């Protein structure tokens, strides 16, 4: 009975954790997976989103509702930042990986320091009525602070997948990842499409931020913990695969939960990379990636 | 050309004065120069939550200078940001000693950062006051190091011993230990395990988990299956929060009578406010709480001044944990300098080894390693906490001291009863 209790709960909390990891990785799946921009500042933007949600919540607004509204200003910030990046780097032919990495590390530090200056270094959290309560189904007991943000992930991913497969601009976004020149021949401005995609990725950061701050309190440096894992999720999924991001994140979440429950919690952080290494050895393009 | 004996004497006198003049001038100038104390503060990086230590230093400096300074000289602080990075620390302390020419040192916050500057302090023979740094002098054995925090002798193993002493007095037979994979937590957990073995308490589980772990429900479920009577937890703020929330979300077995011990987080205002009544029943370490048994001269005035400064600096509004001990670190230096009438490093160190120091955190006596001669880490139980906010924690009765016995301010309430 104890084994069954642990196994069922590990499965449930692993799926919930995976959904939350997917939400954090989604923006990176667009910037890194589709645009090939190594945006290591994405976790820092997620935490900036979490702080924006905390501010809204202090005025009594529900974190998820606040995040949905805040996607608009974050989208605008993403557009502006990509414009700067495109002018300063890509158009001058300096958009190579190393320079981009340096730039985004710098951006990540600036975001962290700005948060420290603006909010201090204390942990910040949101007040929601369901924190401290759990959803119970048979042996499964899952805290609502995991369940609620976890439910957000499939909804966002479904919406994004429909947008990218059923709309003109979504298809253009996927096309720019494959052949920028062919896209411009067809009458589209690749820079405008990439700018839009970057804005979308930044908007998704605030939704991920809301999910993280519901799960637990954050400080300005909380993004660093997630950096390695979100890259692992994106690469494991196959660069740019949106449904694959959810599947890869759930695989990692469930594996971590089982390792914590049945082996040792010390092994849990290494699980993502162990799975990544194993998968890349068998499928170099990731689970859902296709050869380019 | 011949020189008479008288002319030779005048010439020699002139040369002597010319040669001595810079030294006389420098010495006279030095008498007017401020006494400098140098340190780093983690203003950025993972330990930035400790940057309120700077308020403790600055209040000490301001109060001292307002009272006329030290030996008639002003006191000046030279503070740099170490970015919470051990790699930054040796270079900064070299600069403090060689370029800024500081007279005394405060160490960085904590053992990890301090370990990187202790050999330098010893090599340059500078008196260094340890800032909440655990066991940093155990291996270096520097005779001019003095600890501002009350870990006591053999602190590495015994700083959380009060929890196990309580467990023994409560007749606990089975204990579970869980600790974050960090030096501070692991040494406490290992020390606790040894105490349990000596006391005949069975350790039913001993989990070391990574500080980056996101979900602690599996750990709580495993603990539930082993039905311990006490759970000793050594955690950091994010995991402390997750565990405390897990108490209501997942639950603990009814057998548990004591929970907590080595949790970092419930000392900070932001988490105390966030967790509110969920803290009830938890017995945890602290260094200062506003209980009647800890009314040392000057502490209340300090906290009132701190509150104003903290508001302006946007840092922890309560400031019970670190800042009073930073103020006390300054007092350790100023009392020794006043008593010896000198900034001579040996005289100051010898005086501190031989005499107790009155500070806002009580009277401190140092042993040969510069640690407090008596452990005074508090084990305090949260009692009667509600969700009304921070002001309740400024009053007595919310964090009742159970150990050490000399400072006990109330009675232990069994875990389940305290939470009901």
Detailed description of the structure:
The complex is a heterodimer of chains A (292) and B (420). Chain A is an all-alpha fold. Chain A has eleven helices and two strands; from the N terminus they run ααααββααααααα. Chain A starts with a helix and ends in a 10-residue tail after the last helix. The relative contact order of chain A is 0.21. Chain A has one domain. A two-stranded antiparallel sheet of chain A has the order 1-2. Chain A is globular. In chain A, a hairpin with a 2-residue loop joins strand 1 and strand 2. Chain B has helices spanning 5-32, 53-66, 89-98, 110-114, 118-123, 155-158, 161-169, 183-199, 217-226, 237-249, 269-275, 299-313, 323-340, 345-354, 415-419; strands at residues 35-41, 75-81, 104-109, 128-131, 145-147, 174-180, 202-209, 230-235, 258-263, 283-286, 357-359, 362-364, 378-382, 399-403. Helix content of chain B is 41%, strand content 18%. By secondary structure, chain B is of the alpha/beta class. The relative contact order of chain B is 0.13. In chain B, the strands form three sheets. Chain B has a seven-stranded mixed β-sheet, with helices on both faces. Chain B starts with a helix and ends with a helix. Chain B folds into two domains: 34-150 and 296-364, Response regulator (Rossmann fold), CATH 3.40.50; 157-286 and 383-419, Rossmann fold, CATH 3.40.50. The chains are: A mainly alpha (292), B alpha/beta (420). At the A-B interface, helix 1, helix 4 and helix 10 of A face strand 7, helix 9, helix 10 and helix 11 of B.
């Amino acid at each position: 009975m104890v084994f069954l209790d642990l196994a069922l709960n590990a499965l449930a909390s692993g799926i919930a954790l995976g959904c939350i990891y997917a939400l954090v990785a989604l923006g990176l799946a667009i910037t890194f997976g589709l645009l090939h921009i190594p945006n290591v500042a994405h976790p820092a933007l997620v935490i900036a989103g979490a702080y924006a949600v905390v501010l809204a919540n202090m005025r009594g607004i529900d974190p998820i509702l606040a995040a949905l509204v805040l996607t608009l200003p974050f989208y605008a910030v993403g557009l502006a930042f990509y414009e700067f990046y495109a002018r300063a780097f890509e158009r001058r032919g300096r958009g190579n990986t190393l320079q981009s990495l340096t730039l985004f590390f710098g951006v990540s530090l600036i975001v962290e320091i700005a948060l420290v200056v603006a909010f201090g270094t204390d942990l910040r959290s949101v007040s929601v009525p369901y924190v401290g309560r759990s959803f119970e189904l048979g042996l499964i007991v899952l805290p609502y602070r995991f369940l609620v943000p976890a439910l957000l992930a499939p909804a966002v991913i479904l919406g994004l997948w429909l947008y990218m497969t059923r709309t003109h601009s979504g298809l253009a976004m996927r096309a720019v990842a494959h052949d920028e020149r062919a896209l411009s021949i067809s009458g589209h401005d690749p820079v405008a499409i990439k700018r839009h995609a970057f804005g979308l990725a930044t908007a998704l950061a605030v939704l991920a931020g809301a999910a993280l701050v519901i799960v637990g309190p954050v400080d300005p440096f909380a993004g660093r913990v997630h950096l390695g894992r979100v890259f692992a999720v994106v690469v494991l999924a196959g660069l740019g695969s949106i449904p694959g991001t959810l599947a890869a994140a759930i695989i990692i979440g469930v594996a971590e939960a089982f390792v914590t429950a049945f082996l040792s919690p010390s092994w849990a952080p290494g699980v993502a990379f162990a799975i990544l290494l194993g998968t890349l050895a068998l499928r170099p393009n990731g689970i859902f990636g296709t050869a380019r | 050309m011949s020189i008479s004996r008288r002319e030779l004497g005048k010439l020699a006198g002139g040369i002597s004065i010319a040669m001595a003049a810079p030294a006389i001038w420098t010495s006279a100038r030095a008498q007017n120069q401020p006494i400098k104390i140098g340190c780093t503060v983690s203003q950025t990086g993972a330990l930035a939550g400790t940057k309120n230590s700077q308020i403790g230093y600055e209040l000490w400096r301001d109060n001292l200078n307002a009272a006329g300074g030290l030996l008639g000289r002003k006191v000046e602080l030279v503070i740099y940001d170490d970015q919470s990075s051990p790699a930054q620390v040796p270079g900064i302390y070299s600069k403090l000693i060689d370029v800024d020419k500081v007279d005394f040192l405060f160490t960085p916050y904590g053992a990890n950062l301090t370990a990187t500057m202790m050999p330098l302090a010893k090599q340059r023979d500078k008196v260094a006051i340890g800032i909440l740094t655990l066991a940093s002098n155990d291996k270096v054995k520097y005779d001019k190091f003095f600890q501002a925090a009350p870990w006591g002798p053999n602190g590495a193993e015994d700083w959380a011993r009060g929890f196990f002493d309580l467990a023994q007095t409560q007749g606990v037979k089975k204990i579970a230990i869980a600790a974050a994979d960090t030096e501070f937590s692991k040494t406490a957990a290992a020390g606790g395990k040894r105490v349990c073995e000596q006391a005949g308490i069975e350790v039913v589980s001993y989990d070391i988990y990574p500080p980056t772990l996101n979900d602690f429900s599996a750990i709580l479920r495993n603990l539930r299956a082993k039905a311990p009577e006490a759970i000793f937890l050594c955690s950091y703020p994010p995991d402390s929060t997750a565990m405390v929330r897990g108490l209501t979300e997942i639950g603990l077995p009814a057998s548990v009578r004591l929970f907590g011990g080595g949790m970092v987080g419930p000392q900070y205002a932001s988490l105390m406010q966030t967790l509110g009544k969920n803290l009830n029943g938890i017995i945890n370490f602290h260094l200062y709480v506003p209980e009647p048994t800890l009314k040392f001269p000057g502490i209340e005035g300090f906290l009132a001044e701190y509150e104003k400064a903290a508001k302006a600096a946007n840092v922890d509004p309560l400031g019970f944990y670190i800042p009073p001990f930073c103020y006390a670190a300054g007092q350790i230096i100023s009392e020794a300098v006043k008593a010896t009438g000198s900034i001579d490093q040996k005289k100051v160190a010898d005086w501190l080894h031989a005499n107790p120091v009155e500070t806002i955190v009580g009277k401190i006596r140092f042993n040969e390693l510069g640690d407090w001669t008596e452990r005074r880490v508090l084990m305090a139980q949260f009692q009667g906490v509600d969700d009304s906010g921070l002001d309740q924690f400024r009053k007595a009765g919310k964090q009742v001291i159970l150990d050490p016995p000399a400072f006990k301010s109330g009675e232990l309430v069994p875990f389940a009863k305290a939470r009901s």
